[in-house]
Structure formats: C-alpha cells, structure tokens
C-alpha cells in the first residue's frame, strides 16, 4: 500500500519561489491583495495562497510557474547586495567545519550584504544568536534590511564598530572573519572565543593566507587548516549529460583554527 503524500499549503506571509520554464525565478513574500508583475504576465498572490507547494500555476498570459519553497541557496543568490558574498558552497561547509548548530553563539565581522549572516541566523535559531560587526553604516543597513525581509533579524544583533577595539562577547562558540586583514584581529578574536572555540576566515589570495597562517602560529591558535572548495555543475539532460560550459572556480580560501588556552609560564 502506497502512503499518501503529505500536502503542505502556501500561506499568507510565507516566502515563495516562483520558477518559470526558462528557469528564471522570483522570490516573493505572499501577501493578500498583492501581485507579481513579470514580462511573462501578472501573478496574483491570492492565486498562490492556499495552493500546495510544488503546484504549477499560470500568469494571466498563460505562462507557467512552479510554486516552491525557496532553499537557503536561493535566498543567498537573490539577496540584494553591493559586495561579493560568501558563496553557498563555502557557507555550508563553514557551518559543518565550525559546528554551528541551533543554540550556538556566533560572532562575525564584517556583515557585508548579510549573505553569510542569514545562513548563520538560520543555523543557530531558534535559541542561538549571531553578533554581526560592521564598520560601514550603509553596509550594515543593507544587511539589516535583508535579514528583516527574510524574517531572521530577531536572531542577529548588529553592531556598528571597528573590531580593532575588540568584541563585546566572550565565550562564543564560533567566530568568523570576512575582512581584508584578519591577522590584525587575532587577539580580539581569541578573547571573544571559548576555550577550543572555532575560528574561521575567508581570503581571496594566497599571500593573505600565508600572512594569516604565520600570525595564527604566533598566537594562541592551533589545528590550522587551509582549504578551497570547487563545485562543478552538470546539465541535467539524460541524453547529453555533461558539465556546464561555465564554472565559478575560485571563490576564496577557507582558513580554520581552534582557540587554545595558553600554557602558563
């Protein structure tokens, strides 16, 4: 006997992903009385609310869209941004390497457009907290706005400050730096972390990585690792399965370490 498929319904205030047959997609928050206007026609939110996820619906011009829940990957890629983001392939690995789970306290600098912030916020919710430092007011406002639109701002405490003055937190489970000169903030990072806490960083060039490794070795950090992730997509067509013509190759080098308790002299 085949079990019946569980049906979940799109509801008011849900985030929805609409994907056309050409794979062009839109992320919207469902609101009664609202409409999505596209070059393929108009979609009324009222025509989406109450329908099961996975349903195919049509614009007033008859163009088909799939009604789906957006993945975290979708949210990050569609994020409004003015800076480069940490790619999902790197962000997911960061969560695993740094043991960022529900209830964790995570410190990050800088906030950027909020791409990694939203991933951290999802991971630590509902009982955890993300402390996000940014020195640029406009960037912090953009990150805050993005998190508010996604309903994740309640899990993030934004702080407008130069981290050279140190972090407010201590005993944090994990700390991640996305700044140009992370070696200048290792003492501040160590002070914010718990013993054995997870330190992470992303850098674009090898000379920066070398400088950071040297600084980590001279500081109270151990278990240093440097890694790079490459993700290759394929054309999902049975008759001619092959790699995509274009590939996002190098995105950044990931550096991980653990905060150690120094031996007393």
Show unreliable segments.
Answer: none
Helix tally equals 6
State the end-to-end distance.
70 Å
What is the assembly state of the chains in this entry? single chain
Shape: elongated
CATH architecture of the largest domain: 3-Layer(aba) Sandwich
Q: Give the beta-strand count.
A: 15
Kindly state the percentage of residues in helix. 10-25%
Highest CATH level, the class of the largest domain: Alpha Beta
- Going across the major beta sheet, what is the strand order? 9-8-7-10-11-15-12
Sheet with the most strands, sense and barrel status: 7 strands, mixed
The helix/strand order is: EEEEEEHHEHEHEEHEHEEEE
CATH homologous superfamily of the largest domain?
Vaccinia Virus protein VP39
- CATH-derived topology of the largest domain: Rossmann fold
What does this structure look like?
- The protein is α/β, with parallel strands linked by helices.
- The protein has two domains: 15-70, Vcp-like ATPase, Chain A, domain 2; 73-259, Rossmann fold (3-Layer(aba) Sandwich).
- It is 22% helix and 29% strand.
- The protein has helices at 72-77, 88-97, 115-124, 137-149, 186-192, 206-218; strands at 15-20, 25-29, 35-38, 41-44, 56-58, 64-68, 105-109, 129-134, 156-160, 172-177, 193-203, 221-227, 234-235, 242-243, 253-259.
- The chain has a seven-stranded mixed beta sheet with strand order 9-8-7-10-11-15-12, with helices on both faces. Strands 2-1-6-5 form a four-stranded antiparallel beta sheet, with no helix packed on it. Strands 3-4 form a two-stranded antiparallel ribbon.
- The termini are far apart.
């Amino acid at each position: 006997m085949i079990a019946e498929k569980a049906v979940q319904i799109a509801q008011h205030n849900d985030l929805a992903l609409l994907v056309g047959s050409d794979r062009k997609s839109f992320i919207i928050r469902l609101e009664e009385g609202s409409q999505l206007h596209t070059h393929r026609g108009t979609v009324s939110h009222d025509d989406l609310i109450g329908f099961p996820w996975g349903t195919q619906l049509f614009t007033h011009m008859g163009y088909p869209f799939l009604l789906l829940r957006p993945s975290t990957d979708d949210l990050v890629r569609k994020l409004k941004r003015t800076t480069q983001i940490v790619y999902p392939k790197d962000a997911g690995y960061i969560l695993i390497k740094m043991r960022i789970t529900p209830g964790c306290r995570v410190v990050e600098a800088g906030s950027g457009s909020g791409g990694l912030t939203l991933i951290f916020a999802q991971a630590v919710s509902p009982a955890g907290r993300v402390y996000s430092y940014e020195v640029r007011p406009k960037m912090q406002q953009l990150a805050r706005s993005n998190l508010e639109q996604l309903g994740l701002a309640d899990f993030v405490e934004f702080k407008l400050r130069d981290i050279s003055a140190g972090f407010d937190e201590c005993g944090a489970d994990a700390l991640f730096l996305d700044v140009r000169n992370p070696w200048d903030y290792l003492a501040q990072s160590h002070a914010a972390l718990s013993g054995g806490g997870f330190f992470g960083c992303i850098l674009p060039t090898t000379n920066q990585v070398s400088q950071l490794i040297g600084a980590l070795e001279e500081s109270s950090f151990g278990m240093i690792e440097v890694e790079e992730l490459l993700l290759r997509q394929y054309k999902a067509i049975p008759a001619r399965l092959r790699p995509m013509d274009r590939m996002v190759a190098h995105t950044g080098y990931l550096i991980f370490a653990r905060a150690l308790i120094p031996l007393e002299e």
